[in-house]
């Protein structure tokens, strides 16, 4: 079975599931949607951490404190286990060793192992056919510097879905970094994340499947390349977009907000799903949905 | 223990009509009756033959006893939502008189059905002709007492109670209390307590007789509540939770730890929970970890992303105990189902398929090849058909007879009688 499992794809797939659940016969299935939001949250955390490590490497967006922090961390020599722990963080964004890349780690491997080529990375992972949680960075030791950064607190980051250009973007410290999303898995692996795009240019359009009206058929649409993006975005019906807003806002997911159940209160205490329209100053965007 | 094919019920077509998809299977307390519910809102009840006319190695067969339309599709105008007629659960009430009673539920409404036999009919009415037309009373010259004459057995199902409008969310389970007067219904966020005689109210806060019930949360914890302890039942009396293994953490950890089924053992000492990849047996006196864990299809752990994409990861598998709690059974994909013999630590994978459906054909154990070189007769993980899933299984309360539901067929297997 083939699947593209990077975090961005998971986010896209999950959003699509939430949207399609609105049109399923019998109404929104609460439990299933709850489980989908767990995946969304986990994917988002992972995605944010990877992005932040990338951002902190680039000179343009670093502040002095971040540079110092990075330098301090680079001086720490750690085991391979600690490095792989950087792939994930727990729900509050604090570094935690409770996540793994799906492999059962043997005794602490020397850090040098991580610096070898990708095949060496594969060897330390006993579950060799596990394509579960091995993100691109695991296989590309070129990106090892991303591993070496501490998993930061991501409270100053937000994932934003722009309704006009349909790009999922990470907002950090007031700066926007538009990212591709809903792309098929790139064979070049981690290098995919190193692309930097400025605002307002060369946006990829995410699969607009979920902009279609509730009760119509949902035809599959191909991903469109950047060249087509600007022209095609005008064709999208504003009613479809407000449809999406209602899905993510006052529609099915608003029920989540009013749950009284103990479990759910705990969930939302730690990781609130916040969907609202945000007016973003200093950008060319007029409407966006802020997710999480 | 070897298992043999006994019967298969349902259409042979590969083209499955959605209404025929089986959604629940349940034996009654004696095992004489076997009920199935489907997506079309129908209930089919099979009855085991009382006289075994067959040679000793055959167990009595199950034949159709009654079929009725339990639920119809409805429309909630307020929410603009269609309410599916699919039968989510059937639960038998213990038999108190000649009639049988069962509870069936769809997403919103629970119904109590009375299934009764009629094998005699009255004849010789004074005021009615044989064809039912009414006679003119003035034409009567004599009176007679109508007599009951035998007729072909007719099984009637009549709704006796309708319990509605108590669940905002989709009802996912019902459970009859051992006091035979009350039952519980649960949706995603709420558990209601009903009295079988009272249909307009459910007693969420009413302390009733000594009863414990259990509900599981989507985070993989199981709560045991004792209604003696508190009227509100918001506090659990026991919380069963196994700490997560950090080496297995993934994007999908919450989904695969979500519990799809909980069953008490017959002796009341244990309970079994089913999550996506495993079956766990809990001692009710030990809350911090299960006493036994059985991996159902661990080879799927590396495929979770694909299973998430195609929605299979949300499949809710059921599990069941055998009569003496020594064996547990649950379903898997490719029409496989698994049995775990607790005492002997043995497990077997069997398949429900039309190819293995000759009478008394012994089922050959199947094996899935998780990786490496595939041996002969093994199936590789990539060849598994994820559209063929066994979600619903039931075990006869006393005998080694099992009912296994594939998408639209019901297979009945029995153990090999030597």
Order of strands, widest sheet of chain B: 1-30-29-28
Taking all Cα atoms into account, the compactness measure Rg of chain B is: 24 Å
Task: Return the average pLDDT of chain A rounded to an integer.
Answer: 49
Please give the number of β-strands of chain B.
30
The coarse overall form of chain B would be globular
**Biggest interface pair, residues each?**
A-B, 43 and 41 residues
User: Helix/strand-derived class of chain A?
Assistant: alpha+beta
Short description:
The complex is a heterodimer of chains A (292) and B (418). With 292 residues, chain A is α+β, with helices and mostly antiparallel strands. Chain A contains eleven helices and five strands.
Give me the secondary-structure topology.
The complex is a heterodimer of chains A (292) and B (418).
Chain A: H1 7-22, H2 30-57, H3 64-75, H4 80-85, H5 118-124, H6 136-139, H7 144-148, E1 157-162, E2 168-172, E3 175-178, H8 226-233, H9 238-248, H10 254-257, H11 262-270, E4 276-277, E5 288-291
Antiparallel strand pairs in A: 1-2, 1-5, 2-3, 4-5
Helix pairs in contact in A: 1-2
Chain B: E1 3-9, E2 22-27, E3 33-38, E4 42-48, E5 62-69, E6 74-76, E7 81-83, E8 89-92, E9 100-105, E10 110-123, E11 147-163, E12 173-176, E13 182-186, E14 191-195, E15 212-216, E16 222-226, E17 238-240, H1 253-257, E18 261-264, E19 270-274, E20 278-283, E21 292-295, H2 304-309, E22 319-321, E23 327-331, E24 336-341, E25 346-351, E26 367-369, E27 378-380, E28 392-395, E29 401-405, E30 410-415
């Amino acid at each position: 079975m083939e699947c593209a499992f990077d975090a961005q794809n998971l986010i896209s797939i999950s959003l699509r599931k939430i949207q399609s659940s609105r049109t399923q016969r019998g109404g929104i299935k609460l439990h299933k949607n709850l489980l989908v939001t767990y995946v969304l949250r986990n994917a988002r955390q992972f995605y944010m951490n990877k992005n932040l490590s990338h951002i902190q490497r680039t000179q343009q967006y670093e502040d002095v404190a971040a540079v110092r922090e990075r330098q301090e961390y680079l001086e720490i020599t750690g085991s391979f286990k600690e490095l792989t722990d950087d792939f994930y963080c727990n729900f509050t964004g604090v570094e935690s060793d409770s996540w793994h890349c799906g492999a059962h780690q043997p005794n602490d491997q020397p850090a040098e192992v991580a610096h070898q080529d990708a095949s060496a990375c594969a060897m330390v992972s006993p579950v060799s056919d596990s394509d579960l949680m091995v993100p691109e960075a695991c296989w590309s030791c070129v990106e090892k510097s991303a591993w070496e950064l501490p998993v930061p607190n991501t409270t100053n980051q937000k994932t934003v879905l722009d309704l006009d250009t349909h790009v999922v973007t990470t907002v950090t410290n007031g700066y926007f970094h538009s990212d591709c999303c809903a792309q098929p898995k790139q064979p070049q692996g981690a290098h995919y994340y190193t692309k930097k795009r400025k605002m307002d240019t060369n946006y990829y359009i995410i699969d607009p499947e979920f902009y279609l009206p509730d009760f119509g058929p949902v035809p599959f649409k191909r991903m469109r390349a950047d060249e087509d993006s600007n022209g095609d975005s005008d064709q999208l019906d504003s009613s479809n977009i407000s449809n999406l807003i209602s899905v993510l806002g006052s529609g099915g997911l608003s029920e989540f907000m009013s749950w009284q159940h103990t479990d759910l209160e705990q969930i939302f205490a730690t990781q609130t799903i916040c969907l609202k329209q945000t007016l973003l100053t200093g950008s060319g965007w007029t409407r966006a949905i802020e997710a999480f | 223990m070897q298992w043999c094919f006994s019967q298969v019920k349902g259409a042979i077509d590969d083209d499955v009509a959605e209404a025929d998809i089986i959604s629940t299977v349940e034996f009654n307390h004696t095992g004489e009756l076997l009920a199935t519910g489907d997506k079309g809102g129908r209930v089919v009840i099979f009855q085991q033959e009382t006289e075994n006319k067959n040679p000793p190695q055959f167990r009595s067969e199950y034949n159709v006893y009654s079929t009725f339309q339990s639920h119809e599709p409805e429309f909630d105008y307020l929410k603009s939502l269609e309410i599916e007629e699919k039968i989510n659960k059937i639960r038998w009430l213990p038999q108190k008189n000649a009639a049988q009673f069962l509870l069936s539920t769809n997403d919103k409404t629970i119904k109590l059905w009375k299934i009764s036999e009629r094998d005699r009919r009255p004849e010789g009415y004074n005021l009615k002709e044989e064809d039912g037309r009414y006679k003119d009373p003035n034409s009567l010259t004599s009176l007679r007492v109508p007599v009951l004459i035998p007729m072909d057995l007719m099984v009637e199902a009549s709704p006796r109670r309708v319990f509605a409008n108590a669940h905002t969310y989709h009802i996912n389970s019902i459970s009859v209390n051992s006091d035979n007067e009350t039952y519980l219904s649960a949706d995603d966020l709420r558990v209601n307590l009903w009295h079988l005689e009272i249909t307009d109210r459910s007693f969420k806060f009413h302390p009733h007789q000594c009863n414990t019930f259990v509900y599981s949360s989507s985070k993989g914890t199981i709560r045991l509540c004792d209604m003696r302890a508190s009227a509100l039942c918001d506090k659990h009396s026991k919380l069963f939770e196994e700490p997560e293994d950090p080496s297995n953490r993934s994007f999908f950890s919450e989904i695969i730890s979500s519990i799809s089924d909980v069953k008490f053992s017959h002796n009341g000492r244990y309970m079994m929970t089913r999550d996506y990849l495993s079956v766990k047996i809990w001692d009710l006196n030990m809350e911090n970890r299960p006493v036994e864990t059985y991996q159902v299809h661990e080879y799927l752990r590396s495929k979770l992303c694909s299973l998430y994409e195609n929605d299979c990861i949300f499949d809710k598998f059921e599990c069941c105990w055998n009569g003496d709690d020594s064996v547990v059974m649950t379903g898997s994909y490719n029409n496989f189902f698994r049995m775990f013999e607790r005492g002997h630590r043995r497990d077997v994978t069997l398949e429900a398929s039309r190819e293995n459906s000759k009478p008394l054909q012994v089922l050959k154990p199947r094996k899935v090849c998780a990786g490496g070189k595939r041996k002969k007769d093994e199936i590789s993980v990539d060849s598994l058909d994820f559209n063929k899933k066994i979600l619903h299984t039931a075990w006869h309360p006393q005998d080694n007879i099992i009912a296994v539901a594939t998408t639209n067929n019901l297979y009945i297997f029995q153990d090999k009688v030597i």
